[in-house]
Amino acid sequence: MQIYSELLITAILFLCNIRTFFLKESKPDSLAILAPLSLLLSAVNLFAFGLSLLNIYLVLLSVVVLLSNFHALLRYSARLYVDHYSPLMIFWSVVTSLLCIPAFYCAIVFHPVEKTSASFEVEETLLVYNGTFANGFTPAPNFKKGDVFLTKYMPAKDITGEKETLIPVIESPVILFVPDKRADTEHYKPYLQLLAQKGYRVYSADFFTSDGRWLRNIFDSKIFRRFAMVFDSLSRNHLFNAQLEYYSFCSKREVNALLTLIDEDLGSTDTKYFLVTDWMGKIAAQDLINEKRDRFTGKLNLEDIDEYTTKGYGLISLTDPLLAKYMNISEDGWKTARAMADATEGAVK
User: To 10 degrees, what angle do helices 282-291 and 244-266 make?
Assistant: First the structure.
């Protein structure tokens, strides 16, 4: 979980800094190696969970700590003993120790509220693909960078063997969800889990292909895209909204590719789907319903659900509380997720 990695990095930084206050005898400064370790872990955390304000803060703080411990690392690599620290070193230790406090606070107070899919009696499966829209997609080999991350939620299997699944499966329609790019699948997860708990099979995918650019700049990658989209939306809202037609084109292309991938996973080309979108996909949804009436039984745009107040951003009161705080959003996230799932169930029926 993200909170544990953030707390671990902050604790390592704090330990590295406060060691200067507890030197009692001449000895090698072995704890200096925590400085490069913290930078390595913060970089890994960035790749694992994507760009966020706290992750940026931890990376920058790790760089500062590494620079302030540069000479200590040289001494340790030369196997020299340390019997005291310079006033400048002690000064930087005090400063960087104090800078760890906001990181501890944000990691604890604004940590994502997570529940495992198993707690909903739901099975969550991630399918990874490589490829492009032009040439198609194939399952990604192990340990290879993915271009498409397809997540499916469905009622969990009954391991007792008394019945096939713990919750009766609604065979048709399958719910195909198109996440907004300010959110990605992870930020709708509570809603998707609740839909699967109702018996639906739910698919959602995040595309990061070389020919599927949303931002058309260097930030169009798995690590940076959501952060860049949120920043653009909040800082240049009028310009962001003006690109809805382009976002609709991109959403439509993703759904067409998804139909093929999900058909392959289900082993059928006759599956009926119910399409759910957020702000970016609302125009594409109407176009797809008109063009593929034989594949879709209906559609729902999450914008139309009154209880869903963070339209386009997902359930950030649960998945990104720091962003919710910045946007002055205060709500019961699980209540909102349940209202969204109930509204979707009503639209499907």
Answer: 50
Q: Looking at residues 38-43, what average pLDDT do you find?
A: 94
Each residue of 258-275: b (16+ CB within 10 Å) or e?
Answer: bbebbbebeeeeebebbb
Using omega within 30 degrees of 0 as the cis cutoff, is the peptide bond preceding 173 cis? yes
Question: What digits encode the pLDDT tens for the residues 130-160?
Answer: 999 999 999 998 767 899 999 999 998 865 6
Tens digits of residue pLDDT in 313-326: 999 999 999 999 99
Between CA 57 and CA 51 the distance in angstroms is 10
- Which of these, 167, 20, 5, lies nearest to 93 by C-alpha position? 20
Prediction pTM value: 0.88
Pairing of strands 148-155, 170-178: unpaired
Residue 142: the pLDDT is: 76
For residue 94, count other CB atoms closer than 10 A to its CB: 14
Strand partners, 273: 174, 296
Question: The tokens of 209 are what?
Answer: 């292909």
**146, two tokens:** 């993915």
Q: Could you report the per-residue pLDDT of 70-125, keeping only the tens digit for each? A: 888 888 788 777 756 778 888 888 999 999 999 999 999 998 888 899 899 999 99
The count of other CB atoms within 10 Å of the CB of residue 132 is 15
